[in-house]
Amino acid sequence: MNVEDDAPSVAVSPSKHEVEKPMTTFERWVDQIKILLGFKTGENDQGLRVLRSNDPQYNLEQNFPDNFISTTKYKAYSFLLVNLCEQFSRLANAYFLLILILQLIPQIAALDWWITLLPLLFVLSVTGFKDAYDDIQRWRSDKSINNRKTSVLINNQWTETKWSDVTVGSLLRIKSNESIPADVLLVSSSAPNGLAYIETAELDGETNLKVRQSLAETENLMDDVGALSTFFGRVQCELPNNRLDKFIGLLAIESMEENEDLAQYSLDNDKILLRGMVLKNTSWVVGLVIFTGHQTKLMMNSGKPSLKRTNVDKLLNKIVYYILGLLLALCTVCGVGSFIWENIRGEEFSKQYAPWIAPLDTAIVIALMRIPSYIIVLNTLVPISLYVSVEMIRLGQSMFINWDLLMYHNDTDTPARARSTALNEELGQIKYVFSDKTGTLTQNVMVFLKGSINSIQYGGNSGSDEDIAKSPSKSVDFSWNKYADPKFTYDDESLLKAVKARDPEVDKFFKVLSLCHTVMSSEEEGKLTYQAQSPDEEALLTAARNFGYVFLTRTQKTVTISLLGETEEYEMLALLDFDNVRKRMSIILRCPDGKIRLFCKGADTTVIPLLNDSNPAKLDATLDHMNLYARQGLRTLIIAGKEISDYDYLEWEKIFAKAQLSLEDRDGAINAANELIERDLDLIGSSAIEDKLQDGVPETIANLARASIKIWVLTGDKQETAINIGYSCKLIKPRMEVLILEGDESDEVKFEIKELQYRIDELRRTAKKEGVDAEFALVVTGTTLRFALEENLKHAFLKLALQCAAVICCRVTPLQKALVVRLVKNYKPNKADDDNITLAIGDGANDVSMIREAHIGVGISGKEGMQAVLASDFCFAQFRFLERLILVHGHWSYIRMCKFLRYFFFKNFAFTLVQLFYAPFCGFTAQTIFDPLYITLYNVVFTSMPVMLVGIMDQELSVENAPPEVYEVGQLNQLFNKQAFALSGFHGFVVAAGCLFIPYQMFAQSINIDGLDQQSMYFIGTAIAGIVTIVVNFQVALETTLWTVYNHILTWGSIISWFLLFLVICSPFAFHISPDQFSYFDGIYRVVQTRIWWLTMVLTLVICLFPFIGYRLYVILTQPTLLQEVVYNIEKEKVSKLSTLTKTLKAPLKEIADHIPLHLHHGHKGGHALYATKRQQSRKDLHGRVSSAQASTRGYAFASGEGYGRRMIAGGEAMVQIKRQDTRHLPSQIVDVEGEDIQLPKPSNVRPRSGSMRSSTKRAQASRVVNVD
Fold first, then answer.
1. pLDDT tens for each residue of 1128-1155
2. For a disulfide at 644, which of 75, 392, 554, 596, Cβ 3.0-4.6 Å?
3. CA dist., res. 926 & res. 1267, Å (int)
4. Which has the higher per-residue pLDDT, 277 or 351?
């Protein structure tokens, strides 16, 4: 592309350089509308952005957007309309809006309109206020950012200007510790060689400093106003995009000579400062604005993340549709009933009581009108507050994750964080975990440990297993080296001797390490420090530094090292950087001897094919050493290089320069050029770096495996390294059969899959005959995975992989990681099956695609920055915390949410279906039996709070008592599914029938103390309302297993609130205010004064709850889940301990009586009285002790002796505090109750009993880890 075609004129009038006036608010709105309508793009016809420095008029004509940003979701004038539209897009809200509209029609309105309006307004208001508050916070943040100041070159002087008024093409001067206001091209810097140090925490979360460098052609401009005012640069670059690590562009600098060709310079990401970066350790920089406002890369990465919905959410949406269908069916039945009743009795009834009024003067018309009336009456079948309640419960569960001190990493001061509050219960249903290795399973603290140079191994304990068993060698003394890092240790003196002897191969090896990298150096307090973007590079550079090959500094054209005390400067001709495809980096240097050399280091899979065949024996020995290092779990790199003639370099440099100036597929062109020069390399050796496992990784993986969670490790390491790490972290167990899939072609992979499948089948048949289980681990290479993920092989590959307990994929790319996760995630043998819930965990930018693809993404804040954390749903500092996140918080959240949902639907059905059963008694006229205010307050006041507390805080088992195997209830989705919903509905149906028919029959022939009939609708309605409230709250009490003071307050307080509120609603005062609205006058007063109501309430409570208790006991005894069986055995063990304790306490009393002197038994009345008194006191003390123990061991639900928050955070079980008695004069022994040693009188012959688990092997394993003490 010829950049001279649109070259700007050299002679530009001074007025042309004046920046246009800031845009008004109205102009900005018009500007944004143009962008939205496509009339304003800022692009040329070639699809490139073209801008000019010091030419505001030209830039203004391009219609570039300004630097004003707005992240608000709403506008002040449209908030109400937009927010309501969003909320009514939810089915439940739209449904209740329809109900409200129906209630405004007098002919069908069975209830007053405000009965639906009040709860609907409450839900809409809570959501609206939350959305408004969030948006106001965003608006305040935007305002603060837009009003920040920066220096802009205007009329030959630096002028303070708001960020929002910065325009494309402006020259900015940014000072140290200031944020970059827009995406700018680095023109010059106060640091030597045009360097600028920046922090990118706002973009990728990384706090380590990075380096940017200006073009050598512009670094001399400095911040001189005169020079910058005459700097006429023309930039052609890519269109705005969200790629933080890529930038492609060209800079053409105009010459003052009219006929001189424009000089063109390649621009890449290393020369760009992005909005949100912070300038550090640099006094100032000057930048040319490229992208502004919402076209900056930071803002383009601020889009909404993809919405992740849990299985529970999907099921709830289906259930709402089921309930709507059921509602329409019930209303139709009521309509038919109305038609029948009107035909049989309607005409006679209308003549005596309520005459028909047109158009309601025929049975069919009346019946049709009753259908919408009953839709209004039974509308509470659809829970309006369900979604709000679910979100509040999830928020509470997320807060407990954030507060968990056992997931806090003290070394880095990093707590666990739930970045998403919508996925908590999904943590309790994980089936597959996909994990990165480096920095996730390992510490990502790299140390150079071994090396293979010229077929010779260096490094302590290198070689065979016998060598490893030897005692460690003495550490090498580096005191002679003033640059040595004191933290580095090495145990092989022979390598230092080879260095001092200037062994040519060893010299090449360390020269590559000290020269081939992208590390920047600086001196802090006289100490040389390195700023490395990769721990591998820092480890290799530190090793070279200690052995005397010290990297000192670099410029754009040179690299300077100290070689055993002598300074050498190398001219840098080209740097071929590392990326995930090449997996290697090279540098081309002109050495001090005048020769041109290429040094290269990288993965064996990419470097070995580039080696020449000059020394095959050396290559074989090096590969043997690398395989040995890999088996020891070390990370390996190949070191190579070659000498290049001046002619070959000049020819290649032309191709490379052309590739750098390409604006189309620049990366592909550069990679093609790199491959031309990176060939026929001479092998120098290999390096081996140690990366140790994190603390607790083997134990975590073992417990996750016990919970039937399959773990896949996706790593870029060698196959041998990955397998060794698999054994180290107990992912691969000794008894497992390791299957390796390593074909290089599609047909070969297909054959290997079939062969391995046959092998699995054979081994399983053999194991079955021997009565043992066969377990498998699958290892797949990246090359093989490329073919295995093809459409014709992926299902066979997945079938093979799913039969293995562990899968390790080696040498995989970030894209392959995401594809593997997607393959497992979308696998459903049957359409009716639930999703395979997947979790991906990683710590680096190469894990982001995998984290986003999985159902749940977990980021580890490690050494590779914070990009994984920023893309995650949950984050913490160590892999071992994953066990607690899944097996504790996830398991609890799933159980709590399921309990909440089952009870929520039960209480709505129990309440609403009372109205349905009342329909025949009112002639299907849609008359309600309840007070309208009770209908309004039922879900909000009388029944909502106890179950929400259960959803946030309930706990079936403590951490100590819960084996990992109980996690299966979530994987199998046993606690809330369509069957569980149907059972809850049926339960509500039965309770509703009992709550109506039992009181009806009890009051059928009853009269009050005044001799009046008690069958009035007001009396019966109030009586049934009280009974329904009490029954459903006792039901939630039965569902509660962890009782705290809050549970007692809310559960029993909900019942009390019904009495208190109805005392007000039914009072004469309320009736006189509004007789129509408070029509149930005196109802509660007459109800509570009627003894038969209290009897009826108790009778109904027993009849409604005992079948539920009986059914639950039947299930536990005949078809228990593993969770129920563990709870049952714990309770059984506590009862056994209690029995043992009672016998222990009673036995010594007889011994005491046998040793009492006879004169205390007979003769001395006073003595006998004294004995009796002491004996009574002793029994009292002992019984008091038994009572205390019983209070602590009565059952898990009542076992908590302290606040839940502390138990939740500490993860411990409350210790039983029992007051010790003075037993100095009695024989004694130690008895352990609930974890506490108690001094007790010694029994004669009492042995404790213990419970046992039943059924399967898995349950037997679970019982062995249950701690009942």
1. 777 777 777 777 766 666 665 555 555 5
2. 596
3. 57
4. 277
Helical ranges in 342-385 per DSSP H: 347-352, 363-377
Query: How many whole angstroms separate alpha carbon 597 and alpha carbon 643?
Result: 4
Residue 468 has a pLDDT of 41
Distance CA 340, CA 355 (A): 18
In order of 180, 817, 965, the CA distances from 850 in angstroms are 31, 6, 27
Q: Cα–Cα distance between 459 and 492 in angstroms, integer? A: 5
Buried residues in 880-890 as b, exposed as e (16+ CB within 10 A): bbbbbbbbbbb
* Helix and strand element counts for the chain (H, E): 44, 35
Count CB-CB contacts under 10 A for residue 381. Answer: 21
Residue 701: closest CA among 736, 723, 733: 733
Q: Are 378 and 912 in contact (CB under 8 A)?
A: yes
In a 3-state reduction of DSSP, which class is residue 160? strand
**Residue 123: alpha-carbon gap to chain centroid:** 27
- Contact (CB, 8 A) for 398 and 137: no
Tell me, what amino acid is at 1133? Answer: E
Amino acid letter, residue 841:
I
- Range with the poorest average pLDDT among 136-150, 787-801, 1063-1077: 1063-1077
If DSSP states are collapsed to H, E and C, what string results for 631-647? Answer: HCCCEEEEEEEEEECHH
Cβ neighbour number for residue 1068 with a 10 Å cutoff: 11
Please report, as a single letter, which amino acid is at residue 436: D
Structure-block tokens of residue 576: 């071929």
Buried b (16+ CB within 10 A) or exposed e, 56-93: bbbbeebebbbbbbbebbbeeeebeeebeeebbeeebb
| Euclidean distance between CA atoms 797 and 755, whole angstroms | 12
What gap in Å lies between CA 937 and CA 1061, rounded to an integer? 10
Annotate 989-1000 with DSSP letters as a single string.
HHHHHHHHHHHH
Average pLDDT, the chain: 80
Q: Catalytic: which of 55, 135, 204, 436?
A: 436
Q: For 15-52, how does the pLDDT look when each residue is reduced to its tens digit (9 = 90+)?
A: 333 333 445 555 555 555 555 444 455 555 557 899 99
What one-character-per-residue DSSP string does 792-833 give?
TTHHHHHHHHHTSSEEEEES--HHHHHHHHHHHHT--SSTTS
What DSSP string runs through 44-80? -TTS-EEEETT-HHHHHHTT---S-----S--TTTHH
Residue 202 burial (CB < 10 Å; 0-12/13-18/19+)? Answer: middle
Question: Where are the alpha helices (H) located in 417-526, listed in sequence order?
Answer: 465-469, 493-500, 504-515
**Separation of alpha carbons 496 and 512, rounded Å:** 17
For 610, which DSSP code?
G
pLDDT in the model for residue 372: 87
How far, in Å, CA of 552 to CA of 541, rounded? 11
614 class by beta-carbon count within 10 Å (0-12 exposed, 13-18 middle, 19+ buried): exposed
d(CA 170, CA 19): 8
Distance of CA 140 to the CA centre of its chain: 28
Q: ∠180-186-192 over CA atoms, to 5°?
A: 110
How many Å apart are CA 709 and CA 639, to the nearest integer?
40
Query: What pTM was estimated for this model as a whole?
Result: 0.72
Q: How far apart are CA 1163 and CA 824, in angstroms?
A: 88
Rounded to whole angstroms, the Cα distance separating 954 from 897 reads 10
Question: 3-class SS at 790?
Answer: coil
- Whether residue 436 lies in the annotated active site: yes
Q: Is-contact 176 161, C-beta < 8 A?
A: no
Is the dihedral angle over the CA atoms 331, 335, 338, 344 positive or is it negative?
negative
Report the alpha-carbon distance of residue 961 to residue 708 in Å, rounded: 18
Structure tokens given for 865: 């920055």
